[in-house]
C-alpha cells in the first residue's frame, strides 16, 4: 500500500489504511463462511463461549458429521489472524475433531452466532502507535504458574530475536502476571535458593530477570489480558478486554468515511 486510504486484500485479510491508522479484518471471509455453513440468518450472541463451559470428550454423545465439523473449525482457525477473541474457543473445539458429537457442534455453532454479531470487528493500529513488546502470562494452579511464565519468556526471546533486524530497540520487556508468589520466587534470592527442587525450566525465568531481558510486574486478575486466551469469561470481562487487545469494530461506512477524511 503506497497511498493513504487504500484497501488491499491478502489471504482474505482486508487491510484498510487511512490518515488515522490501519485496520485489519476479515469481514468478507466471515460472511462467506457464515453463508457456507447456513448460519448467516441465525440469532447472534454476545460472547463466543458460555461462561465457565468445560468441553471434554463425549464418548456417549450423538456423533455428528466429522468432515463438516473439521471444515467449520478450519474456517474459524483462519479467522484468528485478525480475531484474537476467537482463539481460545476455536482451539478448544479443535481438540474434538476426531470424534465430534452434538455437544461439540453446538459449542462450535455458537462461535458462528457470535461471529455474525461481530462481523465488523478487527485489529486497529492507530497512527503513531508506539512499537513496544509487552507480555502477559496466566496460570490456573500450582506448577502451571511457573510453566506459563517460562513459556512466555521463551516466546519473548524468540520475538526479540526476530525483530533485531528492524529499528525497534528493546530494554527490559515487561511481563505482567497475576500471581505474586510466582513473581517473588523469580525475583527473591532467598526464596529462590530454597526452591532448587523446581525443574530447570522454572529457573529459566530467573535467568532472564537477572540478564535484564524481562521485568516482572503484578497485575490484578481483572486486567489480565491473557485470561481471554485461557478461559471462557463472563460478558462484562470479555467486552472489557477486547479493546485492550487492540480490537475495534468498524463498519464499511465508517472505513469509507475515514479513508475520505
Provide an overview of this structure.
The protein is globular, with a radius of gyration of 21 Å. The strands form two sheets. A five-stranded antiparallel β-sheet has the order 1-2-3-4-8. It has a three-stranded parallel β-sheet with strand order 5-6-7. The protein is α/β, with parallel strands linked by helices and 261 residues long. 41% of the residues lie in helices and 14% in strands. It contains ten helices and eight strands. This is Reverse transcriptase Ty1/copia-type domain-containing protein.
Which regions have little confidence, pLDDT < 50, spanning 5+ residues?
A: 1-8
Mean pLDDT: 81
Q: List how many beta strands DSSP finds.
A: 8
In the sheet with the most strands, the strands line up as 1-2-3-4-8
What is the gyration radius calculated from CA atoms? 21 Å
Going by helix content, strand content and strand pairing, the class is alpha/beta
Shape: globular
The percent of residues in helical segments reads 40-55%
Protein name: Reverse transcriptase Ty1/copia-type domain-containing protein
Amino acid at each position: 500500500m503506497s497511498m493513504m486510504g487504500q484497501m488491499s486484500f491478502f489471504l482474505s485479510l482486508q487491510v484498510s489504511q487511512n490518515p488515522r491508522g490501519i485496520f485489519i479484518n476479515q469481514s468478507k471471509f466471515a460472511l462467506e463462511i457464515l453463508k457456507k455453513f447456513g448460519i448467516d440468518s441465525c440469532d447472534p450472541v454476545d460472547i463466543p463461549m458460555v461462561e465457565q463451559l468445560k468441553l471434554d470428550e463425549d464418548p456417549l454423545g450423538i456423533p455428528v458429521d466429522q468432515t463438516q465439523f473439521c471444515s467449520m473449525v478450519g474456517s474459524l482457525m483462519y479467522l484468528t489472524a485478525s480475531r484474537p477473541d476467537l482463539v481460545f474457543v476455536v482451539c478448544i473445539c479443535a481438540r474434538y475433531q476426531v470424534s465430534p458429537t452434538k455437544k461439540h457442534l453446538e459449542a462450535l455453532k455458537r462461535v458462528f452466532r457470535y461471529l455474525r454479531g461481530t462481523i465488523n470487528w478487527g485489529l486497529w493500529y492507530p497512527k503513531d502507535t508506539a512499537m513496544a513488546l509487552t507480555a502477559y502470562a496466566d496460570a490456573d494452579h500450582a506448577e502451571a504458574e511457573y510453566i506459563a511464565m517460562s513459556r512466555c519468556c521463551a516466546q519473548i526471546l524468540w520475538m526479540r530475536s526476530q525483530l533485531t533486524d528492524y529499528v525497534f530497540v528493546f530494554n527490559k520487556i515487561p511481563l505482567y502476571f497475576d500471581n505474586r508468589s510466582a513473581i517473588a520466587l523469580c525475583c527473591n534470592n532467598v526464596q529462590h535458593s530454597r526452591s532448587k527442587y523446581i525443574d530447570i525450566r522454572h529457573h529459566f525465568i530467573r535467568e532472564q530477570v537477572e540478564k535484564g531481558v524481562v521485568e516482572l510486574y503484578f497485575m490484578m486478575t481483572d486486567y489480565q489480558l491473557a485470561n481471554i486466551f485461557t478461559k471462557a469469561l463472563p460478558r462484562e470481562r470479555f467486552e472489557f478486554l477486547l479493546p485492550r487487545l487492540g480490537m475495534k469494530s468498524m463498519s464499511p461506512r465508517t472505513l469509507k468515511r475515514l479513508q475520505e477524511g
